[in-house]
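Saturday, quiet lab. Running sequence design on the structure tokens for the scaffold JK sent over.
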């Protein structure tokens, strides 16, 4: 009996794989190719003219980088610099702001394991595309409270956020009920309830971003060549840095504009404490952009043609049922053998998966590194969330000035750290222990500089009821 080697080369496989070239630069992407199920497009629509350019790892990298940049601009830029305006406009507390920001991470924690498990065994680009739709809806919903309420009032008809909480805290201790009666309580409560809309939007934002974070890098690792993958990672992390920079820049400009487009205030400026900038415009633009980027993402196949060819190259030799049956018998034998091999691999993976979790949990190096990364991430998240607000209150800056100042300081520092870390790890003599020593030294100086917050210039004096008699 004659053995047929499963490779897209040679005379025996010419009938099985017509017009297939194993060279990556000459992959046959036409509808008659055996790789037709790995074509870019939608059911019933796979144009031949776009396969050469769009059904590639480079185009997937472009899409992922754009999505990562827009998502970073929203989550780590626009949202963080808009907190003060949101608190002032909807009478929120810092606790409410913290809950709104935390919903993004809560959604990620709840969905990380299920999406990693099912998405890793499924169609990764479709999972990423579906996540983009959910994230785009969440970002778009975040701007809806602006359109669900009337124009912002900052005159005597409505107290600001400071007076609202001052009345609530001092009403029992001082005889100022007559003053607080002027507070429009129903309207204030209605504005405060908008925090639930913000929380729901952030939950959708975090839920939709999880597939991209987990599966996009895995898809590139599996489908692009080993020489092209480092470039993909570099571009991906570069987009991660560019996102917050764009967000801070857009936020700095939008917060210098008045919140309502149909109103031109004459008696206040961005330096006044009652000023509320146009916080919502960035979310209104980025939400539809994310949904639009989901359209080409959903068109990607489960495997790129180059990956499918590599799988064929590495498949074991198979035997046909009879040499006299020709190419059709060979195809049936190949298909049956591939199905049998697939079932065997799934059985092995299922048995091995029971030991994977225990291996990870008992790996103390990994556990300690994960804990340290989580603690450092909490510090970074706190700085990004409340750093601009602190700059406003401590240094008397406007919201737009704080956004630009924070972006100028944080983005170059993060870029320097990423580039320096990449160069250090690329050095051939760098060991794991040496890298840990460098991280320990940097972390020590990072924690040491936090004592600067103990330097205080004293509380700002202001008029208000401070004595027993409300003097």
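Result came back. Writing it out in full:
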């Amino acid at each position: 009996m004659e053995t047929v080697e499963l490779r897209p080369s040679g005379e025996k496989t010419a009938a099985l794989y017509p017009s297939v070239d194993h060279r990556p630069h000459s992959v046959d992407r036409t509808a008659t190719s055996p790789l037709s199920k790995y074509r870019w497009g939608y059911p019933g629509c796979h144009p031949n003219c776009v396969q050469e350019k769009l059904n590639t790892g480079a185009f997937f990298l472009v899409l992922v980088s754009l999505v990562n940049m827009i998502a970073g601009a929203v989550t780590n830029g626009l949202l963080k610099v808009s907190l003060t305006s949101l608190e002032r406009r909807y009478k929120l507390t810092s606790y409410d702001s913290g809950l709104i920001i935390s919903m993004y991470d809560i959604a990620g924690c709840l969905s990380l394991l299920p999406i990693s498990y099912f998405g890793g065994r499924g169609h990764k680009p479709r999972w990423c595309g579906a996540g983009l739709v959910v994230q785009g809806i969440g970002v778009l919903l975040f701007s809806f409270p602006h359109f669900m309420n009337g124009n912002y009032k900052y005159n005597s008809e409505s107290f600001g956020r400071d007076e609202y909480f001052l009345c609530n805290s001092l009403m029992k201790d001082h005889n100022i009920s007559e003053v607080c009666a002027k507070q429009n309580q129903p309207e204030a409560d209605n504005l405060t309830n908008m925090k639930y809309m913000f929380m729901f939007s952030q939950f959708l934002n975090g839920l939709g971003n999880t597939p991209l974070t987990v599966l996009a890098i895995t898809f590139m690792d599996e489908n692009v060549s080993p020489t092209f993958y480092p470039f993909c990672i570099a571009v991906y992390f570069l987009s991660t840095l560019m996102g917050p920079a764009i967000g801070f820049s857009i936020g700095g400009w939008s917060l210098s504009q008045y919140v309502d487009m149909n109103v031109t205030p004459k008696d206040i400026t961005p330096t006044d404490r009652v000023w509320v900038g146009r916080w919502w415009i960035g979310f209104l633009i980025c939400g539809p952009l994310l949904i639009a980027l989901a359209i080409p993402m959903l068109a990607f196949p489960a495997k790129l043609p180059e990956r499918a060819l590599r799988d064929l190259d590495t498949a074991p030799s198979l035997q046909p049922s009879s040499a006299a049956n020709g190419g059709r018998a060979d195809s049936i034998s190949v298909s049956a053998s591939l199905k049998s091999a697939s079932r065997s691999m799934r059985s092995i993976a299922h048995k091995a998966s029971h030991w994977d979790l225990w291996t990870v949990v008992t790996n103390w190096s990994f556990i300690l590194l994960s804990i340290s990364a989580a603690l450092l991430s909490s510090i970074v998240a706190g700085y990004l969330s409340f750093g601009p607000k602190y700059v406003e209150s401590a240094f008397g800056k406007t919201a737009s000035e704080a956004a630009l100042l924070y972006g100028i300081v944080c983005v170059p520092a993060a870029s320097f750290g990423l580039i320096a870390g990449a160069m250090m790890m690329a050095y051939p003599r760098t060991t794991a222990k040496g890298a840990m020593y460098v991280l320990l030294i940097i972390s020590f100086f990072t924690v040491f500089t936090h004592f600067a917050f103990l330097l205080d210039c004293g509380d700002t004096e202001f008029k208000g009821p401070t004595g027993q008699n409300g003097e």
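Notes for JK: The chain has a mean pLDDT of 74. The two ends are 105 Å apart (CA to CA). Ask whether to fix the surface positions before the next round.
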